[in-house]
Amino acid sequence: MTYIVKPKNHHPLLEKNELGLTRRDYEGAVSTLCAGCGHDSISSAIVEACFQLSIESYKVAKLSGIGCSSKAPAYFLNQSHGFNSVHGRMPSIATGAAMANHELLYLGISGDGDSASIGIGQFIHCARRQLNMTYIVENNGTYGLTKGQFSATNDLESKSKYGDDNLFPSIDLPSMAIQLGASFVARSFSGDKEQLVPLLKAALSHKGFSFLDIISPCVTFNNHNTSTKSYDYIREHNDALSRPDFVPSGKEILTDYPKGSTVDVPLHDGSLLSLEKISENYDPADKIKAIQNIQESQRDGKVLTGLLYADPEAKDLKEILNVSDKPLNEMDLNDLCPGSEKIKDINSGLK
Amino acid sequence: MKIKSVNDFVIKFANVNGSGSASANQMFAKGVFRSGIPVSPKNIFPSNIQGLPTWFEVRVNEKGYLGRREGIDLFVAMNPQSYQKDVEELKAGGYLIYDSSWKRDFGREDINILEIPLTKLCVQEFTNPKQRLLFKNLGYVGLLASILEMDKDIYISLIEEQFKGKEKLIEPNVKALNIGYNYAEENFKDYCDIKVNKSNKTDGLILTSGNDAAGLGCVYGGATVCAWYPITPSTSLAESYSKYSEKMRVEIGTEKNKFAFIQAEDELAAMGMTIGANWNGARAFTATSGPGVSLMSEFIGLAYFAEVPTVLFNVQRGGPSTGMPTRTQQSDILCSAYASHGDTKHILLIPSDPKECFDFAVEAFDLADRLQTPVIVLLDLDLGMNDWSTKEFEWDDNNQYDRGKVLSKEDLDGIEKFGRYLDVDGDGIPYRTYPGTHPEKGAYFTRGTSHDEYAGYTEDGVKNAEMLTRLVKKFQTASSLVPSPVFNQEKNTSSMGIIYFGSTDCSMQEALDVLDEQNLNIDAMRIRAFPFNLEVWEFIEDHDLLFIVEQNRDGQMRTLIMAEGGIIPDKLVSILCFDGQPITAEHITNKINAHISGKPALVAS
């Protein structure tokens, strides 16, 4: 993954968060992705969300697989440890890491090739196990690094840049995630920061498996007028369920827009995801309705965005496995070794 | 003619799998062990749950020879499907015990047949159809206790221990034991000339399997994460870790686990979780067998190149491909040593008995942390799944875990610029940090792409070559840290040497005694680890001719020695066994004798 180090000069009047940090403190290296790549907008939304939440970067682990999307962790949160693993296997690395220390925040960045094809098994089981992490798919419907092959999230009617027809139907990752038991599922668009940043903040604050499918157009290989993952197509077909606003723990609800009917999702840390309903009958706590909404919208040729489903009370993997509150990586010999007396008992039991 | 022997015989049981026979056969072996005579029970089972032939061999040997031995002295034939083949294996003068509820002519005059109508007796005594079937097994155990003149109370104690907490089951089980015992007392008094006499040769020994021992070693070695995928013959290793952890690793008060035990969706995920946990500072391991190693190989290369400690137990089975999942081989030497694409080399630890499985499991975590690289512990099915009479486990409470070169927050405060892959100490081993250690220092990107000393991506070929060269240096450092070989002699006195490893040890001890009796003086060395340390090379240098004894077709250890040491092939003669059965002392001595007398020894029988 190529990168260029960014100079560290801050303007003295830059806005600061509760930790006294500016947005610049959450940045990474200069991106080497194509100019206009949706992934860069997502990186800047992550910077914004982490800045606003006053997250301590060094308590975040950034994990990825292989592909353009998986390069992105180099472009935000310089002070976080990163793990650029192998293709499609980020979820297993995240699972092991999260078991070793449940106190860090795990942010997985994947792509549609990485998650919907080579790594679909790991994606499925990671969601099913309720791993406490935020899992982002930067979904552009194409294999960018290998120059424009169709990915499994590309729509059936979509054509390649070179005019080839996509012969197979697309895999809808949010529907799968909901069905698999993910407890926070949303879809957004890299070009809609208003929607994306609050959703990211909520996802990062949610305890359990938070899945975000972010449509992120590939300017080089999948932004033509026969693509269903282009900037123009998504802008025209974006069907937002709600206008989200994230309210941190203990803060007053202040939305930037006049409030209509709202749905509030209180998260386990006391924060609140407040959703101004746009769509009728929208209830993010209803799993079946959520899947129905997605299917209907797809049938109507729209791209449904917003918080699709959330269960803030769901158990995460650590709770399911009843793992100690003291992080396993902090345990030493005194915590872990049964000692010589126990070995004598074991020996006598084996005679 | 009758075979006459005290505390030295081989008994084989033929059963139908899924009929509960293995636990009864195990009980027979344990009874002999409790009588003070070392035993080596071996379960020879099909890859199937119910209905196919299965065998169980127990070698009883007061001298402590625990390797498999050909030729059966006593045969308990309980499976008509395999009668014909079974009876052929019985030595002349041997004893055949079979269920005479259906009489049979075996067509052999040179054997002694003990008929017991077990099915009829069990149908008379029990009404439950399941019990009628199951208790035939304990019936023949009772018969054996009688004809071998063993202490019946030992078996009653074993039944009581087995059903502790389910006392209702003790009485019918003891009754089943007595059916066979009493029948034999009435019908076969003084008939059998094979006896078990009480002895004290099991003092200081325990009866356990390599998988059980290795799982326990992981608990003692401080492993907190086990991610695994079921595969024979490694499954019981992960299950042993889970069993011991549930007993000894639960927080008092909160009742929460000081471990995470995760059954992964496949071997790839199992290895990914293991790497992720180790990267984050927990000691983690996975256990698998050949097919799993193939699947894990991409990840093993990542751990090697990104320098993440990783512990993998490979309990080898018969290959290639799906091969013989329930038979033993040592055929993953090369695929373990060089797992993954590109230039990779991995630490191998090769234990020879359950005690060493425990010790090497503990040591594997220290070595992985110290060397920041995958450590593969190579067991095989025979060592992993069968019970062995092995030395008691030991633990010194002064032991400490070696977590290797890990920088704390304080350490980082004192460093101007942290370089994850800088060779600060000149031993090829860099320093690492755990995520979340320091607010401003020590963060880096772990990656499988080419990188510089500061973990930054680089496409500079010279820089990448430097990194690869440093990994060679690290591997050289490893050769001084891994377990040294074990020598059979204090000083080399022969121009010929034998090199062997792993579970071959038990047969080799016997083979060396036999060669000694034949006045063939040959030195012997047991390799316990890769990379080979200096003593291994000295031993090879010191001898003109070396026999390399291995349980595979291609002489993989021989290839490894040739490749790593530039040793002339002519000097290294393979003694091979790859029929899925554990190698025997007779096989080894025959092949060595054949070579010395000028006959080729390259093909296994």
Report on the architecture of this protein:
- The complex is a heterodimer of chains A (351) and B (605).
- Chain A has twelve helices and 13 strands.
- In chain A, helix 1 packs across helix 7, helix 4 packs across helix 5 and helix 6 runs antiparallel to helix 9.
- In chain A, strands 2-1-3-4-8-7-13-9 form an eight-stranded mixed sheet, sandwiched between helices. A three-stranded antiparallel sheet of chain A has the order 10-12-11. In chain A, strands 5-6 form a two-stranded antiparallel ribbon.
- Chain A is an alpha/beta fold.
- Chain A is globular and about 75 Å long.
- Chain A has one domain: 3-Layer(aba) Sandwich (Rossmann fold).
- With 605 residues, chain B is an alpha/beta fold.
- Chain B folds into three domains: 191 residues, Pyruvate-ferredoxin Oxidoreductase, domain 3 (3-Layer(aba) Sandwich); 184 residues, 3-Layer(aba) Sandwich (Rossmann fold), CATH 3.40.50.970; 111 residues, Rossmann fold (3-Layer(aba) Sandwich), CATH 3.40.50.
- Chain B is 38% helix and 20% strand.
- In chain B, the strands form five sheets. A seven-stranded mixed sheet of chain B has the order 11-10-12-13-15-14-21, sandwiched between helices. Chain B has a six-stranded mixed sheet with strand order 3-4-2-5-6-7.
- In chain B, helix 5 runs antiparallel to helix 6 and helix 7 crosses helix 12.
- The two termini of chain B are 30 Å apart.
